[in-house]
Design goal:
It is a single chain. The protein has 556 residues and is α/β, with parallel strands linked by helices. It has one domain: Methylmalonyl-CoA mutase (TIM Barrel, Alpha-Beta Barrel). The chain is 50% helix and 8% strand. The protein contains 21 helices and 11 strands. The strands form 2 sheets. It has a 9-stranded parallel sheet with strand order 7-6-5-4-3-11-10-9-8. A hairpin with a 5-residue loop joins strand 1 and strand 2. Helix 6 packs across helix 20, helix 12 crosses helix 15 and helix 19 runs parallel beside helix 21. The two termini are 45 Å apart. The relative contact order is 0.13. One of its GO terms (molecular function) is cobalamin binding. Keywords: Isomerase. InterPro entries: Cbl-dep_enz_cat (IPR016176), MeMalonylCoA_mutase_a/b_cat (IPR006099), MMCoA_mutase_a_cat (IPR006098). This is Methylmalonyl-CoA mutase, N-terminal domain. It comes from Symbiobacterium thermophilum (strain DSM 24528 / JCM 14929 / IAM 14863 / T).
């Protein structure tokens, strides 16, 4: 991009002396140093001399290696991203109503939020579920709940994302079973299961089993779906929760791709050829408020993953090198103070995701710092995506910020910092070992501390929180989950247990135990147990008995 950096440098030095210095004497800048939200230093001006980019090597063309400019040849000129609002609360009936409402309002894909007991493999009647049933997502105990959740929603016509990790195999099996009851074959299913257990150890905490059997569950899903559910994304390797925990943009990319490397290595060790499973890998990133940094982050992640897959794993299929990703706007950036300001934050973040080339997008609702979103607030969030898609002009051309000296500089800088994190993790023996030693956790905690310190000192302005505060009445009409949901869910679970074939459940769970103790792929016996209406906890308890449970070491 720079044909004569020496001349540009000399001219820039003259410009600074003759033009900038007198201006600074009259109008000093607001502060001595500027940084991105992640702490990357920002210069006053960028020129071609700051961007040593080889266009064909580093950028290329959309739909081609290294995919910096996008994974599809025409991007949004052909089809918009999937508008996929993350939703679920209370019972399967309530969540089903919300899904139908969103689809009627133009949402193009579903994204299922599960409650905390479901996420850690406990039924609604477990003592561990007390007070949590249906609170942060929908409660799913058996296949009967899943049937209700998708009642009237044709699974061959909609793409579904399920945010579930430790018991991902069980929920995927339930989805396949529901589809079969609708007459939809597994080969017709499209969607994603998060299935990213490593980020649970590093940043979120809803793990069940130790790392080794957890990785076996992940790779068993890879192998099963490669044969039986070929259009399904088998994992959504997630930087979202890493960022929500306080990571910088570069850490989000570095730690996420390091986890991706660990999954690829585990699958290869399990005997899978890289090009048989890699095209079904997908990613999940956050979008925060620093617009240009976020756009650069997405571009850097695409380029770096392509290079890792080709150079490190010798992938031959171009689809193996494509980093396809879902984006969610930053939940941690929403404020309870002046909550309507969150609409503006979400718009900025969503626009960055679109300019960065996302394949799927969730926009948070303005009231999510206070409660689960209402129908009205989630409709505004969905309309935000639709306005960007149809009115902003951002979809008319591909990678619209390419060639910006600033964005190209940031793209290169985030790639460089992320590569440094990956090299450090490699030295430790890989992502699993780095997590076990607490490396990622400490790095994230330090970044979170530095950011919070800047906010509390006023160095980092958060409108309505540490500047421009106003007295305001408390919002009304917030969505609250009825505590009666828990008892209703328990009654429904008892009814399912009373009418199912207990002998069939016993046989299915025994077969699962035998498979878990051996080396067979776990998906077929889990699917049979689900079809017999074994509960989520019954299935997870079998695996707990065989695999044990994970407890962080004192080193963390």
């Amino acid at each position: 991009m720079s044909s004569d950096p020496n001349r540009i440098g000399a001219e820039q030095e003259r410009w600074h002396k003759e033009t900038v210095t007198p201006a600074l004497a009259r109008f000093p800048e607001q502060k001595e140093t500027f940084t991105t939200n992640s702490g990357i230093p920002v210069q006053r001006l960028y020129t071609p001399a700051d961007v040593p980019v080889d266009y064909l090597r580093d950028l290329g063309f959309p739909g081609e290696y290294p995919f910096t400019r996008g994974v599809q040849p025409t991007m949004y000129r052909g089809r918009f991203w999937t508008m996929r609002q993350y939703a679920g609360y209370g019972t399967a009936e309530a969540s089903n109503r919300r899904y139908r409402y969103l689809l009627e309002n133009g949402q193009s894909g579903l994204s299922v939020a599960f409650d905390l007991p479901t996420q850690i493999g406990y039924d609604s009647d477990s003592p561990y579920a007390e007070g949590e049933v249906g609170k942060v997502g929908v409660a799913i105990d058996t296949l009967a709940d899943m049937e209700t959740l998708f009642e009237g929603i044709p699974l061959d016509k909609v793409s579904t994302s399920m945010t579930i990790n430790a018991p991902a195999a069980v929920l995927l099996a339930m989805y396949i079973a529901v589809a079969e009851k609708q007459g939809v074959k597994p080969v017709q299913l499209t969607g994603t299961i998060q299935n990213d257990i490593l980020k649970e150890y590093a940043a979120r905490g809803t793990y069940i089993f130790p790392p080794a059997p957890s990785m076996r569950l992940v790779t068993d899903i890879f192998a099963y779906c490669a044969r039986e559910v070929p259009r399904w994304n088998t994992i959504s390797i997630s930087g979202y929760h890493i960022r929500e925990a306080g990571a910088t943009a570069a850490q989000e990319v570095g730690f996420t791709l390091a986890n991706g490397i660990a999954y690829v290595e585990a699958a290869i060790r399990a005997g899978l050829a890289v090009d048989t499973f890699a095209p079904q890998l997908s990613f999940f990133f956050n979008a925060h408020n620093d617009f240009f940094e976020e756009v650069a982050k997405f571009r850097a992640a695409r380029r770096l993953w392509a290079r890792i897959m080709r150079e490190r794993f010798k992938a031959q299929d171009p689809r193996s090198c494509m980093l396809r990703f879902h984006t969610q706007t930053g939940g941690s950036t929403l404020t309870a103070q002046q909550p309507m300001n969150n609409i503006v934050r979400v718009t900025l973040q969503a626009f960055a995701a679109v300019c960065g080339g996302t394949q799927s997008l969730h926009t948070n609702s303005w009231d999510e710092a206070l409660a689960l979103p209402t129908e009205e607030s989630v409709r505004v969030a969905l309309r935000t995506q639709q306005i960007i898609a149809y009115e902003s002009g951002a979809t008319a051309t591909i990678d619209p910020l390419a060639g910006s000296y600033y964005v190209e500089h940031l793209t290169g800088e985030i790639e460089r910092q992320a590569m440094a994190y990956i090299a450090k993790i490699d030295e430790m023996g890989g992502a699993v070992r780095a997590i076990e030693r607490g490396y990622m956790q400490r790095e994230i905690q330090e970044a979170a501390y530095q950011y919070q310190r800047q906010v509390e000192s006023g160095e980092r302005v958060v409108v309505g929180v540490n500047r421009f505060q106003v007295e305001e009445p408390a919002p009304t009409n917030l969505l609250r989950v009825d505590p009666a949901v828990q008892e209703a869910q328990r009654r429904k679970l008892a009814e399912v247990k009373a009418r199912r074939d207990q002998a069939a459940v016993g046989r299915a769970l025994a077969a699962l135990r035998a498979a878990a103790a051996g080396t067979d792929n776990l998906m077929p016996p889990i699917l049979e147990a689900v079809k017999a209406y074994a509960t989520l906890q019954e299935i997870c308890d079998v695996l707990r008995d065989v695999f044990g449970e994970y407890h962080p070491t004192e080193e963390l």
